[in-house]
Each structure stands twice: as C-alpha cells, then as structure tokens.
User: Fold Acetyltransferase YvoF from Paraliobacillus quinghaiensis.
Amino acid sequence: MRKTERYRVQGANSLWHIYKTVPFLKVIKNFTVIQIARYTPFLSMKNWLYRHFLRMNVGDKTAFALMVMLDIMFPERISVGKNTVIGYNTTILAHEYLIKEYRLGDVKIGNEVMIGANSTVLPGVTIGDGAIVSAGTVVHKDVASGTFVAGNPMRVIYSKEEMEERDTQDAFLKKH
Assistant:
C-alpha cells in the first residue's frame, strides 16, 4: 500500500478544487521551472533548478534525462538520492486527483537507482538504494533496495539476492 494522505472533497471532482490545495502562482512557477529543466541538456543545471526553485532534495551526480516530468503541484515532496538515473520521459507524481478525494504522498528514490525511460512513479512510493526499474514500468508500490522490477502492473523480476548471485556469476565468467 502506498503511503498517501487522503483529503475528501464535496461537490465537483477534486481537480475542480485544485487552487484550494495549491496556490496558483506556485503552479505557474513550478511549471515554468520544470519545462525549462525538461529541455536543458545540462544535468547540473537541472539539479540546481530543482533544488533552488522547487525545494527538492536531489543528491550529487543524479541525472534527470531529457523530458522527465516532475509533479507540478508538490515537487518538494520528491527526494532523489545520489548518483541516480531517471530515464527519458519518466513521470514522478506526488499527488493524484480523484473524483471524491485527492491524495498526496512523498516519493523517496534512493541512491544509485536506475529508472528506465517512460516509467511512472506514483505518490507515496519509496524506491530503495540500488533498485532497477525497467523502462515503461508503473511504480505503484514500494521497491526494495537492490531489486529489479518491471511492467504494468509492476512485478519483481529479480530480488536483491538474485541480483547479487547474477553479479557473482558474471564476475566468475569474466575471469574464466
């Protein structure tokens, strides 16, 4: 189960209540910063924009590929560890607006995580250190450290132990 806070709304669907939940000018500022960062080829500039204008926690040497789409409403609820790669056109959400409620949840992505292109990370998810998320995956629940996951619905392809065993076998084969 994802760790989200739930807020009920009355009347129209929750998206109609958007500017009761987040200030309009914050959305405009965040949108502008995110759009600039999506297209810039300079990784250090992207990280600087995210840290200084969006108040995100972004680790050293983390790389956000071209076209990564961060949550426009609550980017400050996203944290990414050091030396992590977020693949092309990946979306990371910290909110979801539904018919009768909206939900907010922190997204925590660990150190040395690899998230493949065109993946979607949903609110309230933690991805552990050294995890690998295959391209096109919808991350709808936590991913344990060192685990390789893929698909929609997401499933574990290799556990941390299986990944370590594969690495050991590969190292042995390279020696011989």
Q: What stands out?
A: The helical segments are 18-21, 24-39, 43-53, 160-175. The radius of gyration is 17 Å. The chain has four helices and 17 strands.
